[in-house]
Amino acid sequence: MNFESNSVVRRSRISCVSKQLFAMSMLIAALTVSGCGPTYPKCDQDKDCHKAEFCVNNQCQQCRGSQDCAAGQRCAAGACEAIPGYCTSSSQCGAGKECQDNMCVTMTQSMPTEPAPVAGPSGPCELQPVYFDYDSSTLADSARQQLSQNAQCIRDRGMKAVHLTGLTDPRGTEEYNLALGDHRAQSAQQYLKSLGTEAKITESSKGEELATGTDEGSWARDRRVDLKAK
Question: Which phi and psi (to 5°) does residue 95 adopt?
Answer without folding.
Answer: -60, 140
